[in-house]
Amino acid sequence: MDYNDRSGLRACARVVSACLLLIAPHPGCDANPGDSGTDSTTDETTGTSGATSGGDTDDEMVCYDHQPADEADLPPPLSCSYAEPCPAVAWAGACEGDVYDPAAGACVIASLQDGEQAVHRLVRCVGAPIDEWSLTVTSLGDGTVVWEEKEYPAGDVYLRTTWRALPEASYFDGCDAQEFSGLRTCLRGLLEQECQLGAPSCS
Questions:
Q1: Distance, CA of 164 to CA of 191 (rounded, Å)
Q2: Strand (E) positions, 44-182?
């Protein structure tokens, strides 16, 4: 092959090299931007993890229902400055001289049925310095109630503080407060209502 033929081949080779440079990806650029799923997934995972972590510590996302084994782990008592329209209800026969008053029990049911702001106290012994059982039901006036119960059976302890929806007024129509057991059964139905998220406060 003569010189001219070789020059033609070299010229063709230069053209081919230039074409290859034009279609090659530039260093530092993504040849396929749509193929960045790994980075995107990592970011999404990090974001989701952060939200989950936040949810674990965010009281607004947690059912307010505490049943610790130690009284020191209970939330502080709510202590709303609401009226106490009914006398404290004593458990009949628990203390000498204490007799259950059906009128007091009926008062508690009627007040809860009305949904008014009120604090109701039920005890085993009125005025005892250390009670074997006590229950405070606080109606917040917004359709919810806070249940704070303490019981100390022999050698044991039962503690519960929870925030529940108040049932429809018709629920209380079926309550019978003639006996303390009937009143307590009626009130226990509050624990079956929807648990509220976050933490209650006095309005």
A1: 7
A2: 65-66, 89-90, 118-123, 133-139, 144-151, 158-165
Which amino acid, 54? G
Sequence ranges of the domains in the chain:
60-192
Burial 171-201 (b: 16+ CB within 10 A, else e): bbeebebeebeebbebbeebeebeebeeebe
Count of CB atoms situated within 10 Å of the CB of 111: 21
- Reported as a single tens digit per residue, the pLDDT across 88-129 is 998 866 676 678 899 999 999 999 999 999 999 998 876 665
Torsion of CA 153, 154, 157, 163, to 10 degrees: 0
124's enclosing H/E stretch is none
CB 91 within 8 A of CB 124: yes
Cα–Cα dist 40/131, whole Å: 60
pLDDT digits (tens, 9 = 90+) for 127-158: 665 557 889 999 999 999 999 999 887 778 89
Would the pTM of this model clear 0.70, i.e. be above it? no
Local structure of 164: helix, strand or coil: strand
Comparing CA positions, the residue from 119, 116, 87 lying closest to residue 103 is 87
